[in-house]
Design a protein that fits this description.
The chain is an all-alpha fold. The protein has one domain: MFS general substrate transporter like domains (Growth Hormone, Chain: A, Up-down Bundle), CATH 1.20.1250.20. 76% of the residues lie in helices and 0% in strands.
């Protein structure tokens, strides 16, 4: 047993208490990531009046957090490979919590832009670090299902942001603007998660990859003991000797090696354009509704109702995550997002808007679960955090630029043509992933990334 890789031992485990703890704590952490991201569009209309934002300043306020996320995902992702997943985890959530709290006290647009940018530095690395950590902790046979459970928990943060904003934004509790209370709630919740996150073990795969074998062995042995205590000695099959990890010292260089270059290019193209469909909807749709003639209160209500589709869509992905390969899950749902987006863009009744919005968010989270898993499966352990963080940073940059592209189209041509652009972006995603992504479902990470 001592000469078998940690990866082989982890892959044969049933679902243990540690796996469930990882699912819960990581899920609640991403809850606040999504809570924060979708506040941008929800509060865009409110902050326009609060700080008298003009057509130039509004995209800057909305985009500042995403630009911060770009740098955060890029830099903190590399820290995850150098210092460990858990250490980078604690840094990113601490930055988000502190500067979201400071942002609640913004007295002008400039202070809000700066605080949102720095909070974005922290929260930008949350999904790629989470995807990396979960892919390494979960056994290959349950990796998709457990990640889907994690994101089902986290996607509750999106309707939470919607309904909290719907309730608090029109109010002034204790004489303080409602939107400021939404920021404070997000900040304090993230601070609690920071404490819980300190309980998580470091990734045994990462520990093994940097030579800290004894620590990796101890964590793996603890999980094996949990399995035996709950399921009996027969629950542990013989580890597969062919699951040999790939080692290296230069994670960024690995992205451009012969084996991984095609995957790197595929993932970079994907991240630039997927954000148009995924984040473009969540951050722009409240302003789409205002452009259609609905009041701020009605737009927030319709948006909140649409956002219910996010956790439901994630839950619906649970039974198919291990049955359908990630690449086909992504391409199929991307096609439906394009169709539903155009349908919403040309809808005029409130009922149709809520229906298509709900269906769009439902499908987009089947899409999201598929790609979050895929991006962390197709690179070796020593470069996984760098690879996912670098690629994901491009989605944050793209999201930051979206208001500068989509809002002018919305203003000049209307919601239909704007969602036509979204559909075109999803077509690029379909071609990119369908032709160039490898198959990964049910395979050990070490086999997916074998250099043989």
């Amino acid at each position: 047993m001592g000469q078998v890789s940690v990866a082989s031992r982890l892959n044969r485990l049933p679902v243990t208490r540690t796996h469930k703890m990882v699912t819960s704590i990581v899920g609640i952490g991403i809850f606040f990531d999504l809570f924060d991201i979708f506040l941008a569009g929800i509060l865009g209309t409110t902050l326009t009046k609060q700080f008298h934002l003009n057509a130039v300043m509004l995209p800057i306020v909305i985009g500042s957090g995403f630009i911060g996320m770009f740098f955060g995902a890029l830099l903190l992702g590399r820290l995850g490979d150098k210092f460990g997943r858990r250490s980078a985890y604690l840094i990113n959530l601490g930055l988000y919590s502190l500067f979201t709290f400071i942002g609640a006290f913004s007295f002008n647009a400039s202070m809000l832009i700066v605080s949102r940018f720095i909070a974005g530095l922290g929260i930008g690395a949350e999904p790629p670090l989470s995807d990396t950590y979960m892919s390494e902790m979960y056994p290959s046979h349950s990796r998709g299902r457990l990640l889907a459970w994690t994101y089902t928990i986290s996607f509750l943060g999106i309707p939470a942001a919607g309904f909290l904003s719907m309730i608090l934004v029109p109010m002034h509790p204790f004489g303080w603007d409602g939107w400021r209370w939404v920021f404070v709630i997000g900040s304090l919740g993230a601070a609690i998660v920071w404490i819980l996150r300190s309980l998580l073990p470091e990734s045994p795969r990462w520990l093994e990859s940097v030579g800290r074998v004894e620590e990796a062995e101890a964590i793996t042995a603890k999980m094996e003991t949990e399995a035996i205590e709950k399921y009996g000695n027969d629950s542990l099959s013989t580890p597969k000797a062919e699951e040999v990890p790939t080692y290296g010292k230069f994670p960024f260089r690995a992205l451009f090696s012969k084996l991984y270059l095609k995957r790197t290019i595929m993932l970079w193209i994907f991240q630039v354009f997927q954000s148009v469909g995924y984040y473009g909807f969540g951050t722009i749709v409240p302003m789409v509704l205002v452009a259609k003639g609905y009041s701020v209160v009605h737009s927030l209500t319709y948006t909140a109702l649409s956002f219910i589709g996010y956790p439901i869509g994630s839950a619906l992905s649970l039974p198919i995550m291990e049955r359908l390969d990630r690449k086909w899950l992504i391409t199929g749902s991307a096609f439906l997002m394009g169709v539903l987006g155009i349908s919403l863009g040309y809808s005029s009744s409130g009922t149709a808007i809520v229906l298509f919005g709900f269906l769009y968010t439902l499908v987009s989270n089947i899409f999201s679960n598929g790609y979050h898993l895929l991006q962390a499966e197709i690179f070796p352990t020593y470069a996984r955090s760098t690879a996912t963080g670098t690629a994901y940073s491009l989605s944050r940059l793209s999201s930051g630029l979206l208001p500068f592209v989509l809002l002018p189209v919305l203003k000049s041509a209307g919601a239909g043509p704007m969602f036509g652009l979204v559909a075109f972006a999803m077509l690029i995603v379909i071609v990119d992933v369908g032709f160039f992504a490898p198959q990964t479902t049910g395979l050990a990470l070490e086999i997916v990334n074998s250099e043989k």
